Amino acid sequence: MVKRSGGELLFAISIDRASQRSVTSQVYNAVKQLIVSGDLAAGKRLPSSRTFAAELKISRTTAIAVFERLVSEGLVVSRTGSGSFVSEAAEARRPNARLVVDAERPATTKLADLIAEASPKFFQRLTHPAKPRAFITGLPDYDAFPLAVWSRLSAKHWSEARDTVMGYSDPDGLPSLRQAIAGHLRGSRGIACEAGQIFIVNGAQQAFDLIGRVLLNRGDRVWFENPGAIGARNSFIACGAAMAPVPVDAEGLSVEAGLRLAPDFRLAFVTPAHQHPTGAEMSLERRAHLLSVANERDAWIVEDDYDGEFRYDGRPLPTLKSADQAERVIYVGTFSKAMFPSLRLGFYVAPQPLVPVFRRISGAFLHGVPSSIQAVTAAFITEGHFATHLRRMRDIYRERHEVFHDEAGKRLGGLLDVARSAAGFHVVGRFVDPRHQEDAVEEGAAKAGLTVSTLGRFCIEPIAEKGLVLGVSAIAPRAIRKGVEDLARVLENTRGSSPATVPAPMTTKSNRSIP
């Protein structure tokens, strides 16, 4: 037999032992009021008479008398073998009147000055559909993740001593996970760091927020790739930064352009291994120049290595942090892309001079990421499952990139100029026909069941190039082929169209969704 819950907690009931009213009457009226007011909703299970008596420190005879009276009035129903429950009939006994207060001054939504200035500059991030579809960006393949291994490691963790698994987390991060990440970064990403430099956070977004709040004053100039990552941009804007949109070319962020725009910059944000979203790889010359300029100007660099593990034509490119001799680079990583997004698990590697600062900040107001997530992830890495998973995912994503480029060559010629990509989760296609408008194509794609992002979404200031950012990692080859076919039809139908005049997609047998 299934062991049932003990019922609702009714500790709020108070008993005045000095009152002339009997204890039975006081308890009965208190429970009745909870039911009639709606605090105890229909269907809620009440505690057993034995539990009820023990919790209120009354005799069991009194508890039984209260329950019997409530049953007789139809407020409670008793089910043999199950317990006592608030009856559906109790709904009719509840008053419908609502308290109305005439306010002389209506409530306002006045914001703090900093967020009031920042919020109009925010750009909304893409809302992910419930299930991956063509061509959603930034999502891994859920089906390929080894859930059986993860479940086994989770069960092992939860079988440990309760004081180990149920206490507060270390605000800096679980030591075993920090050690595991340090080992992985040394071997896979060429970063010579110590576990004490690594701080565990609730995703990369929290890292950007903390970095901004610690290092930026209102009005500080920040070099930011244009186009560039939306989430990081919003974090720095929320900290009061003045964003300097630095153009990106085939070699990555233009340091010369940054010096012209904001020579007194305080911080630079870059994605050197695989620029987000253009896919450019920052050249060694640009990297050396950026490191040199940051050191000269006493500025910091935030390196977002969001998908640096995924390169398909050889070894992953070295990180900027691996060449940082002056301790200027703050390296940010995430497990959302390599594993799965709901982990909400990220980390950053602080330069040695900033370690005491970030440790003090974390200890002051962070409770840390749930220790269970950290412990299981640490075991996943140290037992070799993470490395195995990365190798497998590289093979899967390499195949999907190839499938996309093959299909694009057949169907998108003359519509999109698709740069061949050998890394990351997405590809970029520039419009061939100048009559194509990004908003119109995006709207037409949505009507056709596709999720595409425009280059313009990622820009602080407009750029000359117009096109689409297309994710190819989250869906199987068959869905990629179908998506390319539908996208070609959308592009053919939207030449010269404004969003308001986008033609409805054709309905054919081939338009059926693919599981």
Question: Can you walk me through this structure?
Answer:
- It is elongated, with a radius of gyration of 29 Å.
- Mean pLDDT is 88; it is low at 502-515.
- It folds into 3 domains: 23-93, Orthogonal Bundle (Arc Repressor Mutant, subunit A), CATH 1.10.10.10; 190-384, Aspartate Aminotransferase, domain 2 (3-Layer(aba) Sandwich); 388-511, Aspartate Aminotransferase, domain 1 (Alpha-Beta Complex).
- It is an alpha/beta fold.
- The chain has helices spanning 23-37, 49-56, 60-72, 113-118, 147-158, 162-165, 175-189, 204-215, 230-238, 255-261, 284-296, 355-365, 371-382, 385-411, 438-447, 477-493; strands at 45-46, 76-79, 83-86, 198-201, 221-226, 242-249, 252-253, 267-270, 300-304, 329-334, 346-349, 416-418, 426-431, 453-454, 467-471.
- The strands form 3 sheets. It has an 8-stranded mixed β-sheet with strand order 4-11-10-9-8-5-6-7, sandwiched between helices. A 4-stranded antiparallel β-sheet has the order 12-13-15-14, with helices on one face. The chain has a 3-stranded antiparallel β-sheet with strand order 1-3-2.
- It contains 16 helices and 15 strands.
